[in-house]
Amino acid sequence: MVSTCSIDRVLLDLELLLxxxxxxxxxxxxxxxxxxxxxMKFLKTFVMCARKSTQSNDLYSQSDNVAKKVSLPSFLxxxxxxxxKYEEDIxxxxxxxxxxxxxxxxxxQKQIELxxxxxxxxxxxxxxxxxxxASSRSLQSNSWMTDDELMxxxxxxxxxxxxxxxxxxxxxISESSIYAALTSQFQALEAKLTFFKSFIPFGKLRGTVxxxxxxxxxxxxxxLNTARLSYMCSFWEDEDLHNPEFCSMIYExxxxxxxxxxxxxxxxxxxxxxxxxxxxxxxxxRDKQILNNFNxxxxxRLWELLCCNSSFVDSMKDEIEILYAGLRFxxxxxxxxxxxxxxxxxxxxxxxxxxxxxxxxxxxxxxxEGEVSFSGSTEALDCYDMLSNTNIHIKHFKDQISGSxxxxxxxxxxxxxxxxxxxxxxxxxxKGKMPIAHEVMVGLDDEVEKVIERLVSGTKxxxxxxxxxxxxxxxxxxxxxxxxxxxxxxxxxIRLWCTVSQKFDMESLLIQILCSNGKQSRMDEELKNLNxxxxxxxxxxxxxxxxxxxxxxxxxxxxxxxxxxxxxxEKKGSRIIFTSRSxxxxxxxxxxxxxxxxxxxxxxESFELLLKKVFGKEDCPQALHGLGxxxxxxxxxxxxxxxxxxGVLATIDHHIWVWEEFAKSLTLTMVSGTDQCKNSxxxxxxxxxxxxxxxxxxxxxxxxxxIIGAKNLMRLWIAEGFVEKIEGRRLEDIAEEYxxxxxxxxxxxxxxxxxxxxxxxxxxxDLIFEFCKGEAKEKKFLQVLRGYDELSTFNEPPNLPRLSIxxxxxxxxxxxxxxxxxxxxxxxDATPGRNKFKLLNISFLFCIYKHLKVLNLEGINLxxxxxxxxVESLLCLRYLALTAWKMKFIPPSIANLSHLxxxxxxxxxxxxxxDSIWNMKKLRHVHVRRVCLPSNNNVAExxxxxxxxxxxxxxxxFRRGEENILRRIPNIRxxxxxxxxxxxxxxxxxxxxxxxxxLTLGGYNFSGxxxxxxxxxxxxLKRLCLSNLxxxxxxxxxxxxxxxxxVLKLRQRSMDGQKWELMExxxxxxxxxxxxxxxxxxxxxxxxxxxDYFPCLQQLKLDRTYNLEMMPSCLGRIPTxxxxxxxxxxxxxxxxxxxxxxxxxxYGNENLKIIxxxx
Length: 1159
Description:
single chain; five-stranded parallel sheet
């Protein structure tokens, strides 16, 4: 028997070399080593196969129409001798890399090139031998492999196919559509081989101890043809892969590889009909695994049938869907530990045999392979009868296992539907009765002082200060108060914040920490391509030489154990503060000081917090004091329970009898013990109007601890139909009232406010998240699936309204979900790291889920350059969100989505929307990083306008067609523009957009001045952000005169010139002014003695303003000024700011806040 020792040893050393290339950066040629390893694995598969075939007689290979006899033992010996020559040199490189020694690129290149030359010299003969072996098998009725050897061979081939799809080919193919097409073909081959691999042990389990030789020979032929095709693909170069004929050839070859051939179908049936022997060949758990594997293969093949378009399948689709659901039910049973396992395994095996006979039938396989349909034929009727009978048998088994009530169709969700909103809208809070939404902290001032004292004083060594307490006690609130305290900001050079959920991955966590100083958008590109060790090193370098403060909320000690190497101890007094529910976690942490055990609020403090959250600055009626104290007492000092209860009290009448009834319902048991917060949440939830219940439960669709954009959340609510339509009012305004109501009830928390009011981002407490997830599942409102176990065993009810999935790419594809009546699908990536879930093909989503109203795939990265035309089948779609960094093209068929309201696309490319976009009359929100709208001078075309379009970003405007485009979006309210006129000319004529309230205008980076064509802004503008505009300081008066402007952000190169002189009476309503990276040196008013400047200014933000030497003296006298925020400004600027603060103090404003750091 020929050995593969040389190949194995060379392969092992190459893998060690590759591993060390990640560990040590001084190992070059990583990609070439990786590719050589892949080809060595393909070669190893051949050697394994050929070794089993050495007894084959009269094997002939065909070359140039000449038959040549092949001696496999001699050929294998030649391969062994060939690679034996390179063992020593490759092993030496491996040892040196393991020792951390630097390797020269030419050393590795030389060895890799020699290996590749040898492998390529073997290529043609190996392909010919594979073909010869397959041809000889197809002519014989016996097998030269045992079933165990065949399964081992199949495992090798499956690994080769996985290598082809896992990046090997992707690095060679620039066109993602080609890569997607090839991958789908390789996945089809994987499915066929996986079926064989599961069929053999299943057949033996069911009583066929020896699989018939003819069937094994058929399996061998399929395996050999697959091995040959995959081996050929491993050698194709770039020019082959980009050839359009290449995919066609692969498809044709793949179609010829058929697992169920008509010649062997009857043998399949004999195996599947066999009666199981009385004694199991394996232990019970092994039997279950065999059944489960075969069931998975059947589900996969059935899923493919459901996804294909065929009149034959359509004629019996209901029965196929029932069978699909039945097999998924059996999968869930097989995953559980059941009594009477032997008996159940026997019954499940019999049911799977029945299902296998149907799914392997020639009729269905011809349909699946794309051949003609047979609707209405005798064959179709026979197949339908078999389906019906099998479904009856599975239903009978279900009834025995679960009881008949379990398998009845689950009712659709009615209690939270939008039509009922109108009945409950009268319960909406009036503005005068809105609960207190701002964060209130009571009774913890002494706790704050103690923690601050521990942070700013004591040892110079790095120290950890744990804050420990039960859920809902206010740990994070206390930490935030400490984190933002002025003395903390002053004492620490760098502050970082992160939150660790129960399920986390280290790469995402590290990125969150590195970006927590507010510069995420700038660091994103730098960080997203780093792996975990590089991110750990990045964090270490960032903190080194600095006095730092890091906050994080931690569930498990392993989080700290993995992170601690990134926190340097430079003896500068750095501190790490973390919150945890577990004292055990705190006690196990290295460098940990004594835990700060957070106490519950006293009865007096509880009462004070309750009143502040209910009444705000108003006084509580004296008659309610006693009842209020009684209610507060029952909350047992838990701030979360108190604020949730306060949220209910604020919405009911403030009469004694109403509060008495509420106090009676709030029994001591409802808010005591381990469930005190949960029960108070249930109470608050029951007091919500129906439409707010739906809005709250919708938070379960997101991930735990996720910070959610408020505007996007409200658009999702609108798309779902939660928001009532009221004539004369914008749906977005009504949705905002809903959000503010939930915030006022203390069920939703504000993460970040907008500069002039309103919520920018929000989140919910993790206890509220768990409550929403459980309640949403119980009410059949939303199902949340996390990981393969939940995905694979989930039995879809027929009218499931919403599904939120957090999964890896592999687990999602394996699960084969089929929910054709689903209304909402939200997807997140569960793969450790960022953007690891890269779905190649989403056409099947459009083919299956045709009733979707909401499709949110922003959480995964689609490897697509164009949106599939099948998107047109989603006729009910209202909300579409995608991430596809390489996408460039949107098909005209998108216009068939006549109900689409929101379209979001994250792409690194410039997207040109089709002409048909102008026909999408319901479109309201378009968010693409760079989007081009079609411009046409045709009069008929110009008449097509998007009257409902409300927000658009970021629109690329060109010199030609700019006027036509702006005319066709007349009611736009929020607009972001990237000016593509060129580096020297800018178009700024926005005057025709009378409804425009928010405008962001940018352009190409440049130096020097620019020509401004038709500079004009609409008078209703409230928010203006400029960058790279190069507007002369003399023309700033055009902006100063805007009567309704409330927010102005002047960023890099927004102005040209060093002297900005304010006109008197300018900025009459401006509340927030930001100067970021501007080059102004002198900033002053025309008349320093006049007070007619900035009459409403509240916030001044200065970011990287190094050159400013003069600021308007009026800033020292403005009575409305509340804060001045500085970030990375020069000493001169800081001096000017403190002069303003001193003058403000002289004028009686002692509350002006000067804040340092990123805001």
